[in-house]
What does this fold into?
Amino acid sequence: MKKLLPLLLPLALPLALSACGSDADKAAKPAPVDPFVVAAAPDLAKRLKIAPVKQVPVSETLRVAGQVDFDENRVARIGATVTGRVSAMQGIVGQRVARGTVLAQITSTDLTAQQLAYVRARSAYELNQRNAERARTLFAADVISAAEMQRREAEFRVSAAEVRAAADQLRLLGLSGASLGQLGRGAVSSASSVTATMSGVVVERHLALGQVVQPSDQLFVVADLSKVWAVAQVPEQQVRYVRAGQNVTLDIPALGTKRNGKLVFIGSTVDPKTRTVLIRTELDNADGTLKPSMLATMLVEGEPQPRLTVPSSAVVRENNADYVFLREGNGRYRLRAVKLGEDKGGLRVVLSGLKSGDPVVVDGAFHLNNERNRQAMEGQ
It folds into this structure.
């Protein structure tokens, strides 16, 4: 055994040295770098501003698709007052008209018959009026009896009623008081005018020369576009967030502009097909830039509610995700992924990832993230 020791010592010594070296290497190897943690140098730490996450009143915004529409209180759907054939057309789409402007002419035999009935009733009225006056004179002279006088007066009253009825019928057919006066002189005409019942712009026309029309037909639509509506359909699950009087912003892509208004109407019923409720706002359109049927996005501001928020300056955007830096102490800061709402006047509502009181870097987050990226690259 003693003879083998000198031979084994040379072999054992390298093994012992190699084992010691391996332990030293393990002790000297640096710990892995956490890519989400950054150590801020003193000069950088002085530039950082820390604030706790807290609740502040924030108005939620409801975004719904809508469109510009006519103000139904400023739209006139104009039809014929008689059955007849279109003999002339003056109104064209896009024309600005005043109330009473003639838009078309219709020739009607029904109108002629009604005018003749009025002329006959008028003639009978005038004859019976003279008879009643003569009867009163004769009765005063004791020439006729009281019964005869009363009979003639009754005929006169019936004639007066028939004239009034015939005149009312002609007014329903569109004749004016001046035209009725001319009828009293026997001026019968078969032409009926279709006139604008309000001032505005002709936006629709549904007739052609020679076309036979009836009172139930819609021939023209005239609209006053100085004011228009913006309407949208709110899903029934979200209608509890809207109420009359809320501020509304209308985003109109076709114009590249936004208009502000107030919510003036909320529907009382739910559309059974779309499960939505109609909402509406009114907009001034004196310049005529808003066109009915223009697409728009309606943004309705809700009641302010306490919500966890962070300043927009605290948010770091990377890889299509939002992050903030939390102070951990000893000059170290951790990058944390968060889910945030839209910017509301320089604030972002916290949806997840933070709790009240968390110390967040609200100023200098951009520079801190650059330092984190540098340290991560050096660690790798």
User: Anything to note?
Assistant: Helices lie at 5-28, 42-47, 109-140, 146-172, 177-183, 365-379. The CA atoms of residues 162 and 331 lie 103 Å apart. The first helix runs from residue 5 to 28. The first strand starts at residue 37 and ends at 39.
